[in-house]
Amino acid sequence: MDAEITLMVDGSSRTLTVDTRTTLLDALRDRLGVTSPKKGCDHGQCGSCTVLLDGRRAVTCLTFAVAQDGAQITTANGLAGHDGLHAVQQAFLDQDALQCGYCTPGQVCSAVGMLDEVKAGHPSHVTEDLDADPDLDDAEIRERMSGNLCRCAAYGNVVAAIRQVVQS
């Protein structure tokens, strides 16, 4: 069965007809040509397909496109503004937080979403004091980014990039 949906992708309204079994990842990549989110594991385990879905980070390989009709989707490509790169994108460059780059768009989107979660006061599994604002030490950053895997093991530099944004 097919359904017509409209998605707001990186600030542009896009209407398409999809089979109701189509994932958001496949709709973005195969139907709309938005290749920033990557198909890694296709099981929601690696985070390569992470985008910001209505402002929250989400893995698109586990999300049906039809369920996101009217959603706002921001990919790593949509983070940069007219005045340059998003602070997280710049920090990834400054800290050399990528090697092959395959996971980078998902890592960047996850980092942006994670920083928004911290600003909202959401604790993580390793947050010691649930009544205090979360402190983004290295353990907290690693825990919050644990859903994004990197085959090249650039994790130390990813943590440094996030720390750069927090400290700026």
UniProtKB/TrEMBL annotation:
Gene Ontology molecular-function annotations: 2 iron, 2 sulfur cluster binding; metal ion binding; oxidoreductase activity, acting on the aldehyde or oxo group of donors
Record carries keyword Repeat: no
Gene3D superfamilies linked: 3.10.20.30, [2Fe-2S]-binding domain
Pfam families: Fer2, Fer2_2
PROSITE patterns: 2FE2S_FER_1, 2FE2S_FER_2
Domain 2Fe-2S ferredoxin-type: from-to ranges: 3-79
Pathway as given in its UniProt record: Alkaloid degradation; nicotine degradation
Keywords noted in UniProt: 2Fe-2S, Iron, Iron-sulfur, Metal-binding, Oxidoreductase, Plasmid
PANTHER family the record matches: OXIDOREDUCTASE WITH IRON-SULFUR SUBUNIT, OXIDOREDUCTASE, IRON-SULPHUR BINDING SUBUNIT-RELATED-RELATED
UniProt-recorded name of the protein: 2Fe-2S iron-sulfur cluster-binding protein
Organism: Rhodococcus qingshengii JCM 15477
